[in-house]
Write a structure and sequence with these properties.
The structure holds 2 protein chains of 2 kinds.
Chain A (H helix, E strand, L loop, with lengths): L1 E6 L2 E6 L8 E4 L2 H12 L1 H20 L7 H26 L7 H17 L4 H25 L4 H20 L4 E2 L7 H7 L1 E2 L2 E2 H19 L1 H11 L1 H6 L4 H27 L1 E2 L8 H10 L11 H20 L7 H17 L8
Antiparallel strand pairs in A: 1-2, 2-3, 4-7, 5-6
Chain B lengths: L5 E10 L2 E11 L4 E5 L6 H8 L7 E6 L2 E3 L4 H6 L2 E4 L11 H5 L14 H14 L18 H14 L4 E5 L7 H16 L3 E6 L2 H7 L2 E6 L2 E7 L5 H14 L4
Parallel strand pairs in B: 3-8, 3-9, 6-7, 7-8
Antiparallel strand pairs in B: 1-2, 1-4, 4-5, 9-10
Helix pairs in contact in B: 5-6
Chain lengths: ~350, ~250
């Protein structure tokens, strides 16, 4: 019996009757091959990208002058880098098969630590290091609850979210802390300054995403995250320390939350007791809109970042298209569901 | 007799009141496929779990290359080149063949960044060597798209790559079609030709007969028959198995 087929651009002909089958490869059109492979390997982020382009196109039809208005970008770029910084580690956590709902409060409690330090006139760099430690500890606690006490991550991190936010409210009695004295200091400009009109925090967001992509696709940690989320038992059998991989992912999330808290506090020149609160649903949505599935084992950092763009532009786009803010929630829901539907029909080579 | 890779002497194991193995002697030589045959409940699983270090025996001795090991567990077994290939559990379905082969032992340089080119090239060579040509594949193929026999192949390739001296295959052909079983046979034969011994566990005598060089038949926790392939035909083996089953107790 002879069969042949084209796969990965190689024409493969083989015989199944011979004892030692022969593999004959004939190279075909090289560019086409690379393109096909690229599309196949990146179908999830690509489908998110197509979705983003369609969304922007709709907004532009609604208001052709929309994206000529630089205020739009300013509005989006305040929250977008923070969303990006939060979405990247969340992709890792979802890929391990877990979830983190506590990051908004971790952002808040890290920001509190930072603002308290600033208020006490401590060097901002030390305050920044302190908030990284707080974020790291929060991640360790989450990791401990999930991997050692073996709580469901959904419930454990939901509890942590209330617990930490509650701590902030108790500690601050609802009051914020101003950090406006940092404005225009070198520290401030380094993180949230202005580079010829381009916001520096956007650069931090992009750099963070790039580092996340490397970690996810080119690093041992990313490989183990995927394997752990795919099949925990296999991972254990092959000597991977599952608890450590998951805990590391939570610590990564905690550190990102600290960075997000810093940017948020600096941009607003204030620590609010609610700092971080608004990011829970948009960031979660961005992960899934970007094409990371809920079941673990696969994920996409690039998709998550595109998801953050999609979610970030919805609100601004809707208002700029002439609709009132009452429409945003409806469109959030619509976009989330439509994008999941599009991923569903574009799965191909993963599960079922 | 040459030095065995592993030798079990007078090994017994009971779970509570149930005697799973009693006084079992077993050895595996170099370049050999040992067929371990027995009905359900004969003690096959218990025996391989002792060899792979999952269970500790109640009594008896384990020798590796002639050296007595008083302490024996999964990690020690693995360090001594003994790998177990389970039917489904050892693979991550949504990952590529390459990632599965290097799972937990990634090829990474400084700072843990992966050498994807090297991993991919080694995976490709490995798949070709082991005879993975019966269908279109690439090292980037996701394991989910592979057939049952091919998945066994990936697991065997992985064990071979990490220099396993003895691969234990637990019922590798159960639930596989005939052509798929043949693929597994080819992988096992390749492994033996490379110098890696295998224990092939099956309750299908014909499967075990085709692939094995020597047989050990277990019945109710005891070795009831041990023979080279040259000294017994498949039909004689079946007949003796039937005798054992009908005699009601092991000789």
């Amino acid at each position: 019996m002879l069969s042949d087929a084209t796969y990965g651009g190689q024409r493969v002909t083989m015989s199944t009757t011979e004892k030692t089958p022969q593999l004959v490869t004939v190279p075909t059109n090289r560019t086409g091959v690379i393109l096909t492979k690229f599309i196949r390997d990146n179908r999830r982020p690509l489908s998110a990208l197509v979705f983003f382009i369609v969304l922007i196109a709709i907004f532009m039809v609604a208001n052709p002058r929309l994206f000529l208005n630089s205020q739009i970008y300013n509005a989006v770029f305040v929250s977008l880098p923070i969303s990006i910084i939060l979405v990247v580690p969340l992709v890792f956590i979802v890929t391990t098969g877990e979830i983190d709902l506590s990051f908004p409060s971790v952002v808040g409690i890290c920001a509190w630590a930072f603002a308290s330090g600033i208020q006490a006139e401590i060097n901002p760099i030390l305050c920044f290091l302190a908030m990284l430690v707080v974020g790291c500890v929060a991640g360790l606690v989450n990791g401990f609850l999930v991997t050692r006490i073996k709580l469901s991550s959904l419930v454990a991190t939901l509890g942590m979210n209330f617990l930490l936010r509650g701590l902030i409210y108790i500690g601050r009695q609802g009051y914020g802390i101003t950090t406006s004295q940092l404005r225009d200091t070198p520290f401030f400009n380094f993180f949230v300054g202005d580079l010829d009109g381009f916001p520096v925090h956007m650069i931090w967001g992009i750099l963070f995403a790039l580092a996340g992509w490397f970690l996810f696709s080119r690093h041992r940690f990313g490989a183990q995250v995927a394997v752990v989320g795919d099949n925990q038992d296999s991972a254990k059998e092959m000597g991977i320390n599952v608890a450590r991989v998951k805990t590391t992912a939570y610590v990564y999330m905690g550190l990102a939350a600290a960075l997000a808290g810093l940017l948020s506090t600096l941009i607003n020149a204030t620590f609010y007791p609610t700092t971080g609160d608004g990011y829970l649903l948009p960031v979660l949505a961005a992960v899934f809109v970007g094409g990371t599935p809920t079941w673990g084992g696969v994920g996409t950092v690039v998709g998550g970042v595109i998801g953050a763009f999609i979610v970030g532009f919805i609100e601004t786009g809707i208002v700029a298209s002439g609709l009132t803010g009452y429409y945003t929630q409806f469109f959030y829901g619509l976009v989330i569901i439509l994008s999941l539907v599009s991923h569903r029909f574009n799965q191909g080579r993963t599960r079922y | 007799m040459t030095e065995s890779i592993i030798e079990l002497k007078n090994v017994s194991k009971s779970f509570g009141n149930v005697l799973a193995l009693s006084g079992v002697n077993l050895h595996v030589n170099d370049h050999e496929v040992l067929g371990l045959i027995g009905d359900n409940g004969a003690g096959k699983s218990t025996l391989i779990k002792i060899i792979s270090g999952v269970h500790a025996p109640n009594s008896g001795e384990i020798y590796v290359r002639g050296k007595l090991h008083k302490k024996w567990d999964v990690n020690i077994a693995r360090k001594n080149g003994i790998e177990t290939v389970y039917q489904d559990r050892a693979l991550a379905e949504q990952q590529s063949i390459t990632r599965n082969i290097f799972m937990g032992r990634e090829k990474a340089g400084m700072l843990g960044f992966l050498d994807l080119k090297k991993e991919r090239a080694e995976a490709e060579k490995l798949m070709r060597d082991i005879g993975f040509t019966s269908r279109v594949f690439s090292p980037d193929s996701v394991v989910f798209t592979l057939s049952g026999g091919e998945r066994q192949g990936v697991a065997i390739a992985r064990a071979l790559h990490f220099k396993a001296e003895l691969i234990i295959l637990d019922e590798p052909t159960t639930a596989l079609s005939l052509t798929e079983s043949e693929k597994v046979f080819r992988f096992v034969t390749h492994a033996r030709d490379e110098g890696t011994s295998c224990i092939f566990i099956s309750h299908n005598i014909y499967h075990a007969y085709d692939i094995s060089d020597r047989f050990v038949v277990l019945d109710r926790g005891q070795v009831v028959l041990e023979s080279d392939k040259t000294r017994i035909t498949a039909d004689e083996l079946v007949k003796s198995m039937q005798n054992i089953a009908s005699s009601g107790h092991a000789e």
